[in-house]
Amino acid sequence: MRRAGDVFSLLKARNVDQPSGSVQEATQAIVEVSVALVCAQPYMSPLLRLANAAVSAARNAADFQGTFRSAEEAALRFIEDAQRAAHASALHAANLIRDGLTILTHSRSSTVLEAFFEAQHAGREFSIIVTESRPMLEGRSLGESLAGKGIRVTLIADAAASLLMDQVDLVLVGADRVTPEHLVNKIGTRMIALAARESGLPVYAVCDSSKFNSAGYCGRLKRHERSSSELWPNAPRGIDIVNRYFEPVPLAHFTAIITEAGALSIDEASRRAEAASIDKALVDAVQRLRVEIR
Predict the structure, then answer these.
(1) What is the pTM of this model?
(2) How far apart are CA 4 and CA 86, in angstroms?
(3) Disulfide check for 270: which of 151, 180, 183, 194 has CB 3.0–4.6 Å away?
């Protein structure tokens, strides 16, 4: 997200010495940059919220140069706040991890990883079951990071998660987006959540509140297709390959959502997502381009 903030710094640097224009012209430039950021990673709610902060600040500026300065300051402030919130979320999640537990996680969440390290720093001994997380195999990288700190790790295929639930005490995953109805995370999360629920195990997601936003602002979910070669390079003709990275999981599949405010009930998480409003100028610009980012 830091690189996204740098975009607004570059935009300010490019325009601060230019002949003065109108606040409207400057705001339009910021909206266009913001839409491009949102389109680049449509599942990442923090980019939408960061863009929202920049656009909202720009609309309240008094002059041309000040519009760009306000957008940059708002974007950088949002990033700093989100980083602090992510750390606080990890600390709350670490409190779930007690001595002797086995935790299953899926994909690679930096906040989940920090929670594991915080629990270890507190002197607790536990073990982690890590899914490979196909097709990009982020689980291998996560497992390497954990093992490098002396944490016991077992790597499994994604499809083996249900088979090993009798060895698991709780499931802890991250999130890319939380809406009033769904949590969006790496493909396979829903399968794991259902398997855990069938086994009577708690399922927690950990993320800071920058991941929250209302589903109604920017249209319906567009399921972006990824390269088919990631699943089957040089596949024979006549075979259709569907390769998606993310999926929506009903909030009802989770025990709680862990944020900087602690463990939120599903009802409370839903209310907070509904309340995470997005600037109308940004919403209108996205909708005009028919960009579906839910």
Answers:
(1) 0.88
(2) 17
(3) 180
